Amino acid sequence: MTPHQHLRILLERRVPGYSLEADFYHAQSILDIELKAVFEREWVLAGSSSEIPESGDYLTTMIGQTGIIVVHTEDGTLRAFQNSCRHRGSVICLESKGHANKLVCPYHQWTYALDGELLHAAEMPKNFDRDQYSLIAVNIELMAGMIYVCLANDPPDFSGFRREVEPYIAPHQPARCKVAFETSEIENANWKLVVENNRECYHCAGSHPELTYSLTAFAMPDDPRADTFFSELMPRKAKDWDKLGLPHVAVPGGQEFRCIRLPFINDALSMTLDGSLACRKLLGDFEDPDLGSVRMFRVPNNWNHFSSDYVLHATVNPISPDKTLLTTKWLVHEDAVEGWDYDVEHLTAVWKATNRQDATLAQNNHKGTRAAGYRTGPYAESEFMLVDFTNWYAAKMASYLTQQETSQIHLTSVSS
C-alpha cells in the first residue's frame, strides 16, 4: 500500500467531531504529505516587520524543512526568499536575525543583492548566466506589521483574511513594536496535537492557574456555559469598545482563521500573574489600558494575542512526527524602556508557565495515542475549534490527494 492509499483510507473512515487516528500523529509518511499539502501551500506567519526595520535587516524562519529569509531591501520593501544558495544548496543566513549589506553564502561566497539577484559567483565558466541563478522568491504579504509567507506557486487568496482581521489588530500597531523577549522550544508531540491543545480551553481550569487569572475560558460572547459574571461583563465591555471604535465581534473566518476581542476577568488589564500591566507604555495610540485582548488564530501554524500593552505571537513548525518547534515572541511598544516601562520576567511569566504546562499536556497526549488500545474520542461542545481545525485539515489533505491522483491519471493518459 502506498502512503497516498494509506492516507485515503484514513480520511475515508474519519469521523468528524472525533480525534484523529494514531497514524495521523505518528506516521512519517503522513507528515511527509502534510508538508506538501499544508505547509508548502498555506500562508504562515514568519515574524513582524518591526524585527527588520532598516535596509539590510533580515530574519529567518522555517516552513517544514524549507528555510526562509525575509529581508528589508534597499527600496524599503520586504522580500522573502528560500534560504538556500543556488550553487549547491547551502544555507545562506545562519542566524535567526541579522544585518547584511549583501547576502553571502558562507560555503563558497556566492553573493546576492538584497533583492535576490546573484552578484558574484567565482570560478564559474564563461557561459555561466548569473541572471538564471537569483534566489528563489517566496510569496509575502504584510498585514499591520505581521509578515506572512507562502511557498506555493499559486498561493491562496489573502485578501479575505486581511479584510476581516486587520481592523482588529491595526489599532495595536504591531509595526511600531519591538521584540522584548523570544523563546524557541521543542515540544515532544505531533504538531497537530500542539495546535489542538491551543485551540481549546477545556483543560485550562485544571492546568493553567497563571493564565486563567486574567483570561476567560469562554471563547464566545454568547457561550452557553458562561457564568453570570461573564454574561454581564461582555456586553458592558462591548459598549466601551464601541465607543473607542474597536471591533470585537467574532469574524466570519470559517475553519481557516478566528479573530475576536474578549475581556479580561478579575479586573485584569493584561495577561500577567496579577493582572497588572506588563508594560506601562501602551501600544499604538491607546490611552485606555482596559481593552481585553484580541485573540487571533490562523491555520496551520500561528496564534496571537493583542492587548493594550503587549503582543504575543506563537508559531509552530513540525520537525518530525513526534517533535514540534514552538516559537513565542513578546512585543512591546518600540519606545518602551526595559527596566522602566517593563520587566521581562513580569512580561513573560504567564506564557512561559503556560507553554511549559502545554508542552507536558501535548507530550502526554502524544504518548497516549501510541497505546494499542487508543481509539478516537469525541470532542466536547467547548472544543468546537478542534472540530473546525480537524475538518479543515482533513479537507486539505483530501484535496491534495485528489489533485495528485488527477495528475497521475493525466500523465498516464499522455504517456499511453
Overall description:
There is one protein chain. 38% of the residues are buried. The protein has two domains: 1-41 and 171-416, Naphthalene 1,2-dioxygenase Alpha Subunit, Chain A, domain 1 (Alpha-Beta Complex), CATH 3.90.380.10; 44-150, Rieske Iron-sulfur Protein (3-layer Sandwich), CATH 2.102.10. It has a seven-stranded antiparallel β-sheet with strand order 1-10-9-4-3-2-5, with no helix packed on it. The chain has a six-stranded antiparallel β-sheet with strand order 11-16-15-14-13-12, with helices on both faces. It has helices at residues 3-12, 22-26, 28-39, 159-169, 191-198, 204-207, 228-244, 344-368, 384-415; strands at 44-48, 57-63, 66-72, 78-82, 97-99, 103-104, 111-112, 118-120, 137-143, 146-150, 177-187, 257-262, 293-298, 302-306, 311-320, 323-333. The two termini are 24 Å apart. It is of the alpha+beta class and 416 residues long.
How are the SSEs ordered, and which strands pair?
Blueprint: H1 3-12, H2 22-26, H3 28-39, E1 44-48, E2 57-63, E3 66-72, E4 78-82, E5 97-99, E6 103-104, E7 111-112, E8 118-120, E9 137-143, E10 146-150, H4 159-169, E11 177-187, H5 191-198, H6 204-207, H7 228-244, E12 257-262, E13 293-298, E14 302-306, E15 311-320, E16 323-333, H8 344-368, H9 384-415
Antiparallel strand pairs: 1-10, 2-3, 2-5, 3-4, 4-9, 6-7, 7-8, 9-10, 11-16, 12-13, 13-14, 14-15, 15-16
Question: For the residues shown, what is the average pLDDT?
Answer: 95
Query: Can you write the helix and strand succession as a string?
Result: HHHEEEEEEEEEEHEHHHEEEEEHH
CATH A-level architecture of the largest domain: Alpha-Beta Complex
Spatial arrangement of strands, main beta sheet: 1-10-9-4-3-2-5
Strand content: 15-25%
Radius of gyration, whole Å: 23 Å
CATH topology of the largest domain: Naphthalene 1,2-dioxygenase Alpha Subunit, Chain A, domain 1
Structural class estimated from helices and strands: alpha+beta
